[in-house]
Design a protein that fits this description.
This protein is mainly alpha-helical and 186 residues long. It is built from ten helices and no strands.
Length: 186
């Protein structure tokens, strides 16, 4: 006999609770500083009991990581312009545009400040996107940087500028990060 695994239902009450809690986090971050976020406050806004939130997510850090993972998955499309330069320039411009959104920044800051897994929740999908762009160029036979080097050369400056400087990166500035990265692999 095999052991059954518990899977959350894709619809029904579970999905409604998740959507309401995620929406409440976004609304509260738009209205209040991240320090004001607590599970009881989020639960009250979502119209659910705090024990429901604790049971599902366990902690504020886990809840914020789930909201961030949901928010940052699939928002930026991996471009296919036919060249590595074109793909990376379009992608960095799109990431810069996303990072300029005040709601995105509030969620990122709260998630990163909530615990060690917060940073990963905000960047995992971006790493995967860079990996896809680089692998596609490698399959074309082109010279490519490692994913780690691309993360350091592209995401590092974009995220630093967005999170710490308070000065959003323009698309032009972001696209300018590509040439030095690629010059190092030629």
């Amino acid at each position: 006999m095999t052991e059954a695994t518990v899977q959350p239902r894709p619809g029904g009450r579970s999905a409604r609770v998740r959507a309401a809690v995620h929406r409440a986090v976004g609304e509260l971050l738009a209205e209040e500083p991240a320090e004001a976020l607590t599970i009881p406050v989020i639960a009250a806004r979502a119209g659910v009991h705090a024990t429901t939130v604790y049971r599902r997510w366990g902690s504020l850090a886990q809840l914020l990581a789930d909201v961030a993972t949901s928010r940052f998955s699939g928002d930026v499309v991996v471009p296919d312009t036919g060249s590595l330069v074109g793909d990376l320039e379009r992608w960095t411009g799109d990431v810069a545009t996303d990072l300029a959104d005040p709601d995105v920044l509030a969620l990122m800051r709260a998630t990163i400040g909530s615990g060690p897994e917060g940073g990963s929740a905000c960047t995992a999908d971006r790493h995967a996107q860079l990996g896809a762009i680089i692998e596609r160029e490698r399959a074309r036979g082109g010279k490519v940087p490692s994913v780690e080097r691309a993360v350091d050369g592209l995401l590092g400056p974009l995220y630093y500028r967005a999170i710490f400087s308070g000065e959003p990166a323009s698309g032009e500035w972001a696209r300018g990060l590509v040439a030095p990265l690629l010059a190092a692999v030629q």
